[in-house]
Model the fold of this input.
Amino acid sequence: MEQDDIPDISRHLIRVSEDVELYCLPAGMPSANYARQLSLIDPEAWYREDNNPLRTLIDLLGTSLPFLPDTVLLDSRTGITRLSGPLLFDLADIACIAFFPHPQSEKGTAALVSALLSSRTRRSTPARSFAPEPRFIVSPIPASKTPEVVQRYQHRAAEWIHRWLGAASARPSHWDESELVHFVPYQESLAASDTVFDDRDTWKPYEPIADWIQRFIPSPDEAESTDSSIPALKAAILSELHFPGGTAEERNKSNLVDTFVETDLVTKALLPTTPTRHRAQRHRQDRDLPHAP
Done:
């Protein structure tokens, strides 16, 4: 895409399972030539040119596939690198940060969180700034039978996250720290597996992560209300509108019934308990008369 040739990315998709609509777009096939081409990539140059190939790829994922993806998950390697930087700070709506609460990872993860909260994504506008919303996956928590060991790691991670978010200058008021962090215990079956498990119990500890992402996906009603085809249909909709000319008093009786607008005041006036104009007028006159001694 750096040479302005738009590829057909649908040919490169790999369906992960026949049971679900889940696809993988691999970064490439490892080979000597692939390694050579990878060394020529310069992400910094993408942001100095008119055509950013990374942003073009994301646009193609939303416009050129036979289906419309609900969400796009980007795999970013550990730390801040030339390749992971644009993914985290420019494209991400939500950044799931996985770390183990060891002192060696504290400073690096703190710097990453600070950079995320001060970044500005491609969806930002001059009137409003959007930063990737961080979520924290603390894993792998040791599968210890001693509760104190597990609690020590959980408590340490919670303290770190509280301090990182507290230092943010533009922290959103709706954030609840308890909903931003999830602890995943160590599972030997997953660590030693070379295939994808179909067992739901194996993936159950990761369901809260799916819930985080699900909240960013518009519901069918929301998606329909923001249908992109509406601007194209605007002219046809306006041409079908009809506004009769003249006032109701100028129209004959046959059309008056059709054009008359019945309001709440009309309904109230027609109630049997509502006095007529004559009786209401007499009521006001009687109220103005002096009372007999």
The beta strands are 14-15, 23-24, 94-99, 133-141, 181-185. The two ends are 101 Å apart (CA to CA). The chain is about 45% helix and 10% strand. The first strand starts at residue 14 and ends at 15.
